[in-house]
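Q: Structure tokens for this one, please.
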Amino acid sequence: MKAAVFHGPHQDLTIEDVDVSRPGPREVLVKTAASGVCHSDLHFVEGLYPFQAPGILGHEAAGVVEEVGELVQQFKSGDHVIMCLSVFCGNCSYCLSGRPNLCRSPETQRRPDEDPRLSWNGNPVAQFANLSTYAEYTLVHENALVYVDDDMPLDKAALIGCGVMTGAGAAMNTAKVHHGSTVAVFGAGGVGLSAIQGARIAGAKQIIAVDLHEHKLALARELGATHSVDASSGDPVAQIQDMTDGEGVDFSFEAIGLKSVAEQCFAAIKRGGVATIIGMVPLGQTLEIPAHELLSEKVLQGSSMGSNRFRTDMPNLVDYYRQGRLMLDEMVTVTAPLEDINEAFRAMKAGEVARTVLTSF
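A: Here is the predicted structure, written as tokens:
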């Protein structure tokens, strides 16, 4: 199959012919229809997080089932599916306690003594997040998939696979934004825009978007932000406090992955407020917060993939899209072929796009 191969940090991905194995007993082969280009992948390209080379990145995708393993019962050839990196085993303490998004069981992967799912020039290829969707096909454990109806556009469904689930889930599941609350979201990329939409769907009365780019703030207002802050024009925390009678917000979200912004995210909440870090702050960095502010019951927490139970959460998001409550069409800035993956990374880093979706493999 055709795939974009990662050769190491600070190198362009190259389009290569990669071998994909046949499905094992509980595996499913999916023909990739669409894959969003997520900022998380860029972190690995830039060397901020380690990933073995050669490998295939990509983790936000939807497609059509091509072939299933002999023990797979809930999927069949022709089914439309969303892929999710929160693959779960169903047996570990996290899964059994209702937190399957935290599952890291090796049961969903092939054993070292088995043939690899992916190989190139006779050598194993690392599978990213148990998915690797910058490729013509994806071979995954059945618990990495959720079925969607055929009438759901797959290029929009792909966004739900990571960015939308991560952002909207952080608002609705992790932080539990409630009716009448006040919210600030730092970063108006794909994840931040989804957090804004999640806060709107949850009933927040004031949603403040923070970004450096006016065109991204304009889109944030279109998707539900009631106010916006241009972080290039001054201290965003001071501007948020001015908008909230000097108190700060009930809930704040960091959707970029920067230490300084994560610290601003905490500074922007009121007494008893909750700051949720969604972005991937580079490995080795630590956050510094005034410890005494914890005495006023301020909370700093993280969120992993929107604290999802994706087999139920993603169909709900599909329903919100159909009802017009979740806006996905507006989030897609560019559709492109797989061959444009490096340009997609450049445009994302430059802040030119909300989301590029690869739709031609």
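A few notes: The radius of gyration is 20 Å. The chain has nine helices and 20 strands.
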